[in-house]
User: What shape does this take?
Amino acid sequence: MGSLQRTGRAERSCDSSAARARPAVECWSVMRPSLPPNIAAEYRPATGGEVRAESFGALKAARVHGESDWRRQRGTFDDQAIFGPRRRYACACGQYEGSQYANIICDICGVKITTPDARRVRCAHINLEVEIFHPLGNEKDRLNAVPVLPARFFEAENGGELLSAYDAIICGRDERGVAEWFARLCEILSPVLVTAHCWDLSDRLLIAHGMALRDREK
Ligand SMILES: [Zn+2]
Assistant: This one.
């Protein structure tokens, strides 16, 4: 994949651990991304519970530029306990290294000892302090968690825009702003889903998950 996208932003503390979201705010003026009707008909909005069920951890802070201490990477886009190890069969703290430890979860840093291929499949999520309407659903479809795609997506050559949207959602305090950024996220991913759908690519369901969508029959 492409080079790592670094945002260069100053360190920000924006802890947003929201177990119980407040009621959704009206946001019909928010931009509504669109999918071709024949493709949209194949999917339904996911629930916050479904988003969390696919996640390996909640993100609580935006990326900290240049931070190398694994403890300070917890809950950020650099958290290897969530997204998987950067080095083959090595955890973040150095306690375990080598294929003989495969599939062990480090009791210190929480990283599963496996290959960086895990970074292609492990999703995260962002808990929202305020429920938002699903930008691809109707007024009864609300979300209190936003899915975060695996690291390979936001670390890809085109991933910078994705990472900016995730960062804005994590740090968002304004309901309309969060809804707009999630709608923007869906707008970025819509053409990717259309391609994956039309070519029946193996990533189709993963990309749909990134837009908080599920196959309609499930
Ligand atoms: Zn460790």
Summary: Strands lie at 43-45, 55-58, 123-133, 142-148, 213-215. Residues 10-56+122-215 form one domain.
